[in-house]
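hey so i finaly got around to running the thing on Glycine amidinotransferase from Streptomyces nymphaeiformis. pasting the sequence first so u can double check i didnt mess up the copy paste, my clipboard has been acting weird all day
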Amino acid sequence: MTEQRTTPAQDGSAPDSPGASERPVRVNAWNGWDPLRHVIVGRAEGTVVQAPEHAVRRDYPDDGFPLGTYGPMPADMVAEADQQLDDFADMLRRRGIRVDRPTPVDFTKEVSTPEWTHESMFGCMPPRDLLLTVGNEVLEATMSYRSRWFEYLCYRPVLQDLFDADPRMRWEAAPKPRLTDASYKAGFWDTYNELPTDVQLARVRDYDLVLTEAEPLFDAADVARFGKDLFVQLSFVTNRSGYDWLRRHFPDHRVHAVTSTNTHPLHIDATWVPLRPGLVLHCGERLADAELMEFFKLNDWEIVEAVQPASWDHPPKLSFCSPWLAGNMLNLDANTLCVEENEVRLAEQLSSYGFEIVPVPFRAVGPFGGGLHCATVDIERDGGLEDYFPRRYGRF
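ok and heres what it spat out for the 3d tokens, dont ask me to read them lol
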């Protein structure tokens, strides 16, 4: 019912396994490691290099898209990425996991509200950016790019099906932002990338970045779920007002604002990665602040520093992702991790902690918005709400 493709012949994919299709649809996910039963996997189809805007600029002079230009991603890149996404979805189905897919729209269209017009949209590969599942609720994030304001439309068919099938599902949407010029710091990108690293890091610590506090703004991918505790990273796409909105929206959770030692913070899911209760992976170049590290250690969590990613043989064209996308993994359960197939050293490191590693060809997907975690949204995982942090420390 929730699978948007009714027959395998429509896109050459395998149907859901009998076990998945026979289970009733249920929205339930409190963390990222309980056994996965139902997931959304994105699509590369239709993705564009978005037109420049206050929030973001793309500059690929060697690949046909110098600053100020925009348009559809090359057809060969789209085909390769969609093949890897389809193969990944089929692998999940073979493991008994129900898979939904978004419905692309024409992302080349100009879009507008009464207060602004923008020349393009973006795509629907990274559903993790837009959707956050907490318990039986699926929440649509605000999105701080004008090019992504209408991206929610791609997921409305899936969400409507979930709502129709599960009478317990809560379908929520954060206030759609106005995204007027008042939401952005004028001229931010004209100077920020030229600043010394220490100055950039100081601005990250002080949350002096591209967004103002004119309205709540956040991407769902800046939220890490640990049962009772939600960690919200302040970044280029998530402001303090967005964090405060999330804190009020989830009054039964402890919602924490965190910062990174990354000069270009954008989404927490390749920086601070929960693996299972008591074990979290962090990116060696994006250390969490000392107070957060102590909070986890006080609650008997082991913090593992990820090994350096594999040599970056990602297709160099049109990618805005860093090598640390290696840490952008998907748990199938507390003992099984999907890892990009080239990240052999990371797989070996995680295997030493007892994980079964499922290598997944996924390098071609990066330029479309991220890795295995970015490309998915949990809809159902077994398990319930747990408190993994009984001891308080500092501001946490």
